[in-house]
């Protein structure tokens, strides 16, 4: 059983489509602020569920970071957190405004064997869970998180967005020894999607295909408008690490979260020196062809009428 924690941007939606198309069962989804404020994330989740006929339960979680602020990439993604070329997710009534913590607690309490979490946004909900119910940490087998980076950032020169949006949450997760497996920016940048990948989707005629092609096109436009030929598949790469782990190589490392740097707040410091005691597994290599096939295959499967 898998729990997904997400800030429901377009790449989060593709990641969830990949899991939904795999043999893994989704026990529930918790929402966190990130790609947009939580109210908009709830609307995005409801729209995606309507478009894609998702049946799993969805619960709203943190509206702000642990210290209280809200950071979003609105300057890149726009106010909804999902850029479009003109189409949009359908309107649908959003999930209740809270409930994520109690839903996660009930899920963990009811498990017969430790469960897995796929985290695709700021780690705020997971940190709150760890602080509220440390006794349930042993019930978590693994948290696969898209976040951080060992080299350059994306939201700032130093920091990846999910890490920057709530660095204290990452620090809490690390300090409480949660079993963390990181799919970072550097790894995701090995898995690219370009305008050539749009053609098969654009060849389909269903209303659902039209919306997915529009949103994928707008996602690729993020890179094109910045002079890059292709866009990294961030959250889908993390989903692939869960559904096709053999396509990845992880290595134990020690991660420290930069909380104080004037220019480096939100940076993940990845220490690979042999004498350090590891506190996380870090994704080093991915079979980009396999990850792309899973992502584009899930899009095509969902888009066919
Ligand atoms: O930095 C990439 C992450 O931030 C992804 O989770 C994506 O959804 C985003 O906004
Ligand atoms: Ca995300």
Q: What strand order characterises the main sheet?
A: 3-2-1-4-5-6-11-9-10
* Gross geometry: globular
CATH class label? Alpha Beta
**Total number of β-strand segments?**
11
Radius of gyration computed on alpha carbons:
18 Å
Which whole number gives the mean pLDDT? 97
Total helix count?
12
The named CATH superfamily? Ribonucleoside hydrolase-like
Bound molecules: alpha-D-ribofuranose, calcium ion
List the helices and strands and how they pair.
Elements: E1 2-6, H1 10-20, E2 26-31, H2 38-52, E3 58-60, H3 74-77, H4 100-110, E4 115-119, H5 124-132, E5 140-146, H6 161-165, H7 167-175, E6 180-183, H8 185-188, E7 192-193, H9 199-202, H10 207-224, E8 231-232, H11 234-243, E9 248-257, E10 268-271, E11 280-286, H12 288-303
Parallel strand pairs: 1-2, 1-4, 2-3, 4-5, 5-6, 6-11
Antiparallel strand pairs: 7-8, 9-10, 9-11
Helix pairs in contact: 1-11, 1-12, 5-7, 10-12, 11-12
This protein binds alpha-D-ribofuranose (RIB) and calcium ion (CA).
């Amino acid at each position: 059983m898998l729990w997904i924690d997400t800030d429901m941007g377009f790449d989060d939606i593709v990641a969830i489509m990949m899991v939904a198309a795999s043999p893994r069962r989704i026990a529930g989804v918790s929402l966190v602020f990130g790609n947009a404020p939580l109210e908009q994330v709830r609307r995005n989740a409801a729209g995606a569920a309507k478009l894609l006929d998702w049946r799993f339960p969805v619960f709203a979680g943190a509206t702000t970071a642990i210290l209280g602020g809200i950071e979003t990439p609105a300057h890149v993604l726009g106010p909804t957190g999902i850029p479009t070329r003109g189409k949009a997710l359908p309107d649908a009534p959003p999930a209740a405004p809270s409930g994520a913590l109690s839903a996660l607690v009930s899920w963990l309490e009811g498990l017969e064997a430790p469960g897995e979490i796929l985290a695709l946004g700021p780690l705020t909900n997971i940190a709150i869970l760890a602080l509220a119910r440390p006794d349930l940490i042993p019930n978590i087998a693994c948290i696969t998180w898209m976040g951080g980076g060992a080299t350059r950032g994306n939201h700032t020169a130093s920091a990846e967005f999910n890490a920057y949006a709530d660095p204290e949450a990452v620090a809490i997760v690390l300090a409480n020894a949660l079993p963390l497996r990181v799919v970072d920016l550097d790894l995701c940048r090995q898995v690219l999607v370009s305008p050539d990948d749009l053609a098969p989707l654009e060849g389909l005629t269903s209303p659902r295909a039209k919306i997915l092609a529009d949103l994928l096109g707008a996602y690729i436009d993020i890179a094109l408008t910045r002079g890059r030929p292709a866009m990294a598949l961030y959250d889908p790469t993390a989903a692939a690490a869960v559904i096709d782990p053999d396509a990845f190589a992880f290595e134990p490392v020690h991660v420290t979260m930069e909380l104080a740097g004037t220019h480096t707040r939100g940076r993940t410091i990845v220490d690979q020196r042999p004498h350090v005691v590891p506190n996380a597994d870090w994704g080093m290599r991915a079979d980009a062809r396999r990850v792309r096939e899973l992502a584009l295959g899930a899009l095509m499967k969902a888009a066919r009428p």
